[in-house]
Amino acid sequence: MDHVHDLVTPGKVHSVAVKSNGEYGFDPNVWAGMPVRTTTAGAYEVIKGLPMDAFAKEKIAATNAELVGERDTVKGML
Fold first, then answer.
1. Cα–Cα distance for residue pair 64/45, rounded to 1 Å
2. Rounded distance between C-alpha atoms, residue 13 and residue 7, angstroms
3. What is the mean pLDDT of residues 39-46?
4. pTM for the model
């Protein structure tokens, strides 16, 4: 319920899985949880440039590797 509320409330900051364009070290074209700001009801923008410590970078790199591996595994199934 809160997530839907955030998606339709301009100015709200939340996390949602979106297609990456290379933000935060994610490979372009993988879908990952990103920090976003609702711009208008149902529309958002990825918040860019949030600072990350070494721990966060390490965890994102591990998640990215997993997502890229999963993407590559299913390519032949499509």
1. 20
2. 9
3. 92
4. 0.78
